[in-house]
Amino acid sequence: MSTSKYITPEGHARLTDELDDLWRVQRPKVVQAVSEAAAMGDRSENAEYIYGKKMLREIDRRVRFLRKRLEGMTVVSATPSDTSRVFFGAWVQLEDDEGVEITLRIVGPDEFDPKRNWISLDSPMARALLRRCEGDKVRVLLPAGERVYAILAVSYGGF
């Protein structure tokens, strides 16, 4: 399954900062440590050398992933023309059929965060909410079963 290539400016900055830190700070430190460990002699039994090479591979893997991912990203910083409807970046206040209220934010798949109630644009909940407006009811098929939610409010500046 391919994921959406949309991201908020904050999410883009976070991924760019991570890439910069890995490439300009972490990788040079590990390369230096590996070089020092290699100078100690027998590399086959040198734990620092073996661990350093493993760390280097992990850093390089993450750098490749971030570069490829950031390459095709669309940073969405503009508010949609119709702010009464749910689109990418929206804060949506919902009430379920039991009267429990929750506020969610629809973000890109690289920045979803359950602790902050940020959900991925690709999630079933977000797909059900897209293009809906305040007062609409939506049915969402979740792992726990089907739920009905009423949209209480839509905002693009947060609640």
Radius of gyration: 22 Å
Total helical elements = 3
Helix and strand element order: EHHEEEEHEE
How many β-strands, per DSSP? 7
Mean pLDDT: 92
What is the CATH top level name of the largest domain?
A: Mainly Alpha
Label the structural class. alpha/beta
Low-confidence stretches: none
CATH level 3 topology of the largest domain: Helix Hairpins
Main pleated-sheet profile: 5 strands, mixed
Strand content: 15-25%
Please tell me the total number of domains.
Answer: 2
CATH superfamily of the largest domain: Transcription elongation factor, GreA/GreB, N-terminal domain
Strands side by side in the biggest sheet: 5-4-3-7-6
Instruction: Estimate the global geometry from the Cα principal axes.
Output: elongated
CATH architecture of the largest domain: Orthogonal Bundle
Q: Roughly what percent helix?
A: 25-40%
Describe the protein in words.
The model has no long low-confidence stretch (mean pLDDT 92). The chain has 2 domains: 6-75, Transcription elongation factor, GreA/GreB, N-terminal domain (Helix Hairpins); 91-155, Transcription elongation factor, GreA/GreB, C-terminal domain (Chitinase A, domain 3, Roll). The chain is α/β, with parallel strands linked by helices. Helix content is 38%, strand content 23%. The protein is built from 3 helices and 7 strands.
